[in-house]
Amino acid sequence: MIKMRVRYSKEEEACLLSHHEIQAALVRWLRRSNLPLIYSEGFNQRVRIETGIPTGVGMVSLQEYVDVLLDAWSPVADRASALERTAPPGLRFLAAVDIPLTAPSLMGQPMILRYEYTWARRADVDAEQMKEHMASFLALPTLMVVRENGKSRVPKDIRTYVLTAQIATRTPLRAHVGVFFNQSGTIRMDEVVRYIFGLDAKVAPMPVVTRQSVLLNMSGVFVDPMDIVAQAVPPHRPKTSHHD
Question: Which of 3, 116, 186, 244 is the most exposed place for a label (fewest CB within 10 A)?
């Protein structure tokens, strides 16, 4: 059995697909590539894949990942060629590597995600005012917001999820935001617009959002998800002390 990690981008019409529709497109793509896929057992057999943290509908992503289990080995270059030839519209193959079977799942690790927010018409957004809001947000030790969760209201400190925020260019207006993701969640895109940029989503034009990069926490160091050497390092476990 082999575990292969695939990096691809989600662009054009694929941006309008939901997470479940993207997963279905991935399965069809893998089947068309004629790779020796492994299926789950039972009556309703499924291709065994693990995807990373999903992007929202309408969001471009330059770095998406999926882990695929294969039943037989073949040169990675041959598999990459097959995936490149059979990629569906909007999903572009970028790279593939074999990783250890013991490598943790993509969703099971803390990660850093970097996003770009772009406004086509700079005049619609006050860049200086937005810059001041970003600086004020970053200066806060905490920022509690209340999220609606079904019939309940859950408080969440969203400041803890934001690492960086800065304006990259002014014409067109682009802002880069680095966020932290772990098992407790992360900041939402609408919260970025409201609390970091200080914009009213009902009035201000919505930006085009692009996920630019992903880094995984491997043994306390954030690395590229395609880094084979990092994937082979056993996860760090704190030493336990014994007392008499």
Answer: 244
